[in-house]
What we know:
The protein is 43% helix and 12% strand. The chain is α/β, with parallel strands linked by helices. It is globular. The protein starts with 15 loop residues before the first helix and ends in a 6-residue tail after the last helix. The protein binds phosphoric acid mono(formamide)ester and norvaline. Phosphoric acid mono(formamide)ester is lined by residues 60-63, 131, 139, 274-276.
Amino acid sequence: MNLKNRSFLTLLDFKKEEIEYLLSLSFALKAKKKGLTHVKEVDGKLLEGKNIVLLFDKTSTRTRCSFEVAAHDEGASVTYLTNSQMGKKESLEDTAKVLGRLFDGIEYRGYEQKVVEDLALFSGVPVWNGLTDIDHPTQFLADMMTAMEHTGKGPDSIKFAYIGDGRNNVANALMIGCSILGSSYSVASPESLFPEPALLEKCRSAAAGSNGSITLTTDPFEAVKGADVIYTDIWCSMGEEDKMQERIELLKPYQVTMDLLKASGNDDVLFEHCLPSFHDLNTTIGKEVYEKFGLKEMEVSDEVFRSRHSVVFDEAENRMHTIKAVMVATLSDKLNY
Ligand code: CP
Ligand code: NVA
């Protein structure tokens, strides 16, 4: 498998075997970091001498830290950029050409998917999507890796049930990844938040080729039946903060509770969330929502979040191992995996 010099903009650009390879490399790199098993193909500093830039137009904890730690672990140097000239005093094209001269790889987090596409087009170096309004492909790798670790199953035997805003970046990435890998994916949302029809069609066609399945319903209790993993995300993504009242009204019946976990019929059902999460009142936004709307917890109850079912911190850790795999696969001169 050779993914050298490829950009990672959306999982739709990747074949089943390529995504499986990235997952397998993630497991090998995790084992290396933990000193558990020796996989000689991933020995050494795989990104030594490489320079990486991280461009963030939206806030981040996990994604930024994962790129930085992964790069440092493998010997690369990192520049973090939040206040670039891009799009303000300089065109995206010109900025991309400059970054391509200075850096070996570019990570971008922001709004439009076209920005990551144009960065890849004009920079001439691999570009990694660290989240846009419509996609979050590195998140999917961590979600799947965590599900595989905890269920002991392969992707084609895992059933994910996504509850809540069914057309946000995280839900889209999960639907795309599941459909390519042959997993079962059910989404429960109000109809107005169902996945976008054009993307749904692409995913349905991928699922037809992989023996996967995609089910849409407005009933969360229907969606979770037989699930291995129940997944949710915040109700207003970055850039949608003004929609809070409307989303609360729409999504209150979609809160992930212990009753919903029980409805899966699986005593060991897992709970996943990309994080950050509003599950208590220990955030400023959580407190504001409580004062305005009387809600103490939003997309998931604190009880579920802290329960034995919740694997959210393993999932957060796996962001680093999977992002490392993406950078190593697309950039390393030393990888023989
Ligand atoms: N899950 C995720 O992308 O987290 P951050 O927004 O903290 O990067
Ligand atoms: N859907 C969320 C994901 C955060 C990691 C957002 O875009 O804000």
